[in-house]
Amino acid sequence: MFNDNQRIGLGFCVFGAFFCFLAVLMLFDRGFLVIGNFLFICGVPLILGLQKTAKFFFKRSKVVGTTCFFLGILLILVRWPFIGFMVEVFGALNLFGPFASMALMVLRNAPYVGPFFRLPIFKSVEAGMKTFAKTTDSAFDIL
């Protein structure tokens, strides 16, 4: 299913998300955010490959998400972790938003956590994500 590089990249992305989660728990600790972002940015090319990663991040339709994502990382590096994290989350939602509903659907069918993800709160979150995706796509069609 996965080759060795993809497994390593998946591990990097998981640990990157974990470090970002720890950073939020520790009130936006800059060090954890930097480590999490570094691991995530190293993991994505290992999973997708360099050409597919470049195509994904630099598509014309994803230019706003890519700009916000990398601007957020830059703001974190210049010691504005809260604002940088918020800008980065906005960019990540623009970039990876379409995958979120698919991931939620997979989690609903998972054996142990499925009933939890079938609760009405997650249905409203999914509807909000779809509305957000529609508004951001239509707002930036000019680019």
TrEMBL record:
It is a multi-pass membrane protein. GO terms for biological process: endoplasmic reticulum to Golgi vesicle-mediated transport; retrograde transport, endosome to Golgi. InterPro entries: Got1, Vesicle_transpt_Got1/SFT2. Its main location: Golgi. It holds the Pfam family Got1. It comes from the Eukaryota. It is found in: Golgi apparatus membrane. Keywords: Golgi apparatus, Membrane, Transmembrane, Transmembrane helix. The chain crosses the membrane at residues 7-28, 34-51, 63-83. One of its GO terms (cellular component) is cytosol. Belongs to the GOT1 family. This is Vesicle transport protein Got1/SFT2-like. It comes from Carpediemonas membranifera.
